[in-house]
């Protein structure tokens, strides 16, 4: 049975005080919660502080990060390697987020290289896929998601998806307040899983597929009631301990 993952992508938000307060709040809010994995991805410069605070926490909260480079070391100003992330206890690394694809011109092929490099170094890729509003309106959602997945599958084999996470995030729903209905999200998740199943039913059956895009405590239960939605990649609501914990609790209850 797939174990749900609720992960908070803090994006470009935070301060030392905020990190301390949010982790303290999450530790209290998540006390006794079981049946769901919870992860946070603060900005990289707060990984050290987050690692220290999580080490003292009673609740188990996984540490993640928002990006990685495709080089291990060298003259690559501003980049972060997998081993650096591991050095601070990060395990779940977000790649292919639409903001990276759009603002930094990261191609499907480049994201696939990151995916392979993370696997090579024993880290868990959280691979973001999803369509723009124009692509959605043109009925291209499934084709876009398949193309983004195939950049990995066609170069590394479908088995490369074992032990990884896929996050389906319709770009038009990220941070906009708009959200796909639970039924629409389930339909796309089922299509994504079917695309993988065409190569390997076993891999498709076991891979975790999160939904992301304006997930809130108010709509989380409806998403997690769907059979192919295995948690959430959460943006804005992850910056509030009570809201983020409520989403995690909803996942634990729905998938129990």
UniProtKB/TrEMBL annotation:
InterPro entries in the record: Aldolase_TIM, TIM_sf, TrioseP_Isoase_bac/euk, Triosephosphate_isomerase, Triosephosphate_isomerase_AS
Positions with a binding annotation for substrate: 9-11, 175, 214, 235-236
Assigned keywords, A-Z: Cytoplasm, Gluconeogenesis, Glycolysis, Isomerase
Compartment(s) of residence: Cytoplasm
Transmembrane segments: none
Assigned EC number: 5.3.1.1
A GO CC term assigned to this protein in UniProt: cytosol
Any one GO BP annotation for this protein: gluconeogenesis
Pfam family, one: TIM
Record-level Gene Ontology MF annotations: triose-phosphate isomerase activity
Principal location: cytoplasm
Active site: 97, 169
Catalytic activity: D-glyceraldehyde 3-phosphate = dihydroxyacetone phosphate
Pathway entry: Carbohydrate metabolism; erythritol degradation; Carbohydrate degradation; glycolysis; D-glyceraldehyde 3-phosphate from glycerone phosphate: step 1/1; Carbohydrate biosynthesis; gluconeogenesis
Main function: Involved in the gluconeogenesis. Catalyzes stereospecifically the conversion of dihydroxyacetone phosphate (DHAP) to D-glyceraldehyde-3-phosphate (G3P).
Family as reported in the entry's similarity comment: Belongs to the triosephosphate isomerase family.
Subunit structure: Homodimer.
Protein name: Triosephosphate isomerase
Protein source organism: Grimontia marina
Name of the gene this protein is made from: tpiA
């Amino acid at each position: 049975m797939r174990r749900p993952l609720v992960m908070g992508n803090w994006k470009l938000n935070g301060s030392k005080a905020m990190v301390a307060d949010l982790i303290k709040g999450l530790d209290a809010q998540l006390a006794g919660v079981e049946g769901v994995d919870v992860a946070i991805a603060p900005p990289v410069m707060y990984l050290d502080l987050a690692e220290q605070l999580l080490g003292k926490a009673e609740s188990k909260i996984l540490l993640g990060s928002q990006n990685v480079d495709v080089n291990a070391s060298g003259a690559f100003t501003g980049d972060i390697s997998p081993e650096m992330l591991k050095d601070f206890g990060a395990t779940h690394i977000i790649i292919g987020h639409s903001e990276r694809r759009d603002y930094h011109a990261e191609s499907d092929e480049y994201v696939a290289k990151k995916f392979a490099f993370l696997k090579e170094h024993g880290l868990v890729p959280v691979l973001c896929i999803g369509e723009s509003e124009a692509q959605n309106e043109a009925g291209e959602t499934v084709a876009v998601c398949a193309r983004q997945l195939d950049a990995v599958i066609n170069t590394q084999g479908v088995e490369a998806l074992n032990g990884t996470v896929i996050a389906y995030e319709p770009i038009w729903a990220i941070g906009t307040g708009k959200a796909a209905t639970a039924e629409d999200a389930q339909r796309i998740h089922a299509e994504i899983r079917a695309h993988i199943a065409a190569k390997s039913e076993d891999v498709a059956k076991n891979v975790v597929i999160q939904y992301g895009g304006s997930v809130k405590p108010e709509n989380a239960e409806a998403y997690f009631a769907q059979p192919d939605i295995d948690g959430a990649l959460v943006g804005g609501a992850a910056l509030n301990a009570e809201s983020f914990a409520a989403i995690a609790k909803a996942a634990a209850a729905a998938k129990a």
